[in-house]
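R.M. (postdoc): so does anyone remember the format we settled on? I'll just put the structure tokens first.
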């Protein structure tokens, strides 16, 4: 019980610190919503009219910073996130985020989970047969792929599978504009075709890290005394590999996987930008470009909460799977 309360206390403290930093970062950025709105209206409105418009949208530049901070915390926790003052001027932020969130979860979430599962399995096999053919080839290949930039891999895939092949796979957006959205085979097929290239980009750049981490964990675990004891007892290689070695080697990867799941909600910003994919990452890019304070703050808050919740659940899962983590000291 003390372990759970201690983790919850760290969670609350970290969340408050992150929300506080989230409040000040946009205000330290160059430019202001007033300048961005003046540029979009081509200086046709007077400064007084622009300030009145921003005030109507919930942005009050002349209000005391302390009052703004308290209002901000209240709005973050109550879900009263206001409206956009960027390109989607006057649009409720809850609606904007609600439209982009499913696309990010579907694309980045699925690609991240598949990369983790595939990387873990390959890492277990490579570590188990250390020095074999699999261990000699794949780790070297994945060292290279894990270092490749998202945008470079995305552009390369577009060149090969979209440009050179005459549009064999779509290179942008989330579905064909000619297809009516709905739970129909045509729409689902269009969504899947548009997700292949961005999903493959995330998979290629992410799977290498999981392979190398799991391989190293597996090699370290195989040197433990309980593995030697299992061999001495005459257990089968399959049982030692999965129930003894892989199960314990998997535990250190949980923290990294929790972090990656938390970052899923932010989306791979560069991937969504390269493929014009309308997820939260692309939404954040547009919010920064348009100095949309309310939308930026909400997105940063969602990213922070996603990471913290994922890490907290990982701590609980690790404590449940490995009682040693609950031991004092």
């Amino acid at each position: 019980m003390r372990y759970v309360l201690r983790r919850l206390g760290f969670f609350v403290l970290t969340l408050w610190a992150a929300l506080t930093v989230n409040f000040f970062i946009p205000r330290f950025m160059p430019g202001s919503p007033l300048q961005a709105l003046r540029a979009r209206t081509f200086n046709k409105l007077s400064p007084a009219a622009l300030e009145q418009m921003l005030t109507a949208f919930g942005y009050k530049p002349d209000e005391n910073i302390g009052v703004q901070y308290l209002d901000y915390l209240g709005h973050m926790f109550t879900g009263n996130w206001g409206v956009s003052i960027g390109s989607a001027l006057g649009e409720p932020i809850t609606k904007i985020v609600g439209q982009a969130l499913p696309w990010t979860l579907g694309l980045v979430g699925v690609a991240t989970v598949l990369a983790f599962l595939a990387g873990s399995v390959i890492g277990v096999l490579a570590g188990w047969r250390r020095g074999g053919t699999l261990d000699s080839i794949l780790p070297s290949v994945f060292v290279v792929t894990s270092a490749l930039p998202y945008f470079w891999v995305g552009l390369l895939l577009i060149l090969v599978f979209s440009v050179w092949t005459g549009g064999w796979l779509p290179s942008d957006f989330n579905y064909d504009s000619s297809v009516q959205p709905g739970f129909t085979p045509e729409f689902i097929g269009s969504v899947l075709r548009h997700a292949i290239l961005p999903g493959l980009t995330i998979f290629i750049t992410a799977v290498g890290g999981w392979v190398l981490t799991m391989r190293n964990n597996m090699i370290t675990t195989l040197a433990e005394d309980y593995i030697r004891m299992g061999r001495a007892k005459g257990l089968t290689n399959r049982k030692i590999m999965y129930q003894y070695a892989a199960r314990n080697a998997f535990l250190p990867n949980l923290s990294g996987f929790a972090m990656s799941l938390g970052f899923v909600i932010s989306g791979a910003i560069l991937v969504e930008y390269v493929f014009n994919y309308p997820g939260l990452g692309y939404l954040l890019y547009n919010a920064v470009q348009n100095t949309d304070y309310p939308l930026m703050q909400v997105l940063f808050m969602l990213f922070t909460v996603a990471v913290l919740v994922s890490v907290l659940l990982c701590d609980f899962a690790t404590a449940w799977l490995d009682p040693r983590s609950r031991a004092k000291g």
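R.M.: ...and that's the designed sequence above, right after the tokens. Also worth knowing: The chain has 13 helices and no strands. The chain has a mean pLDDT of 83.
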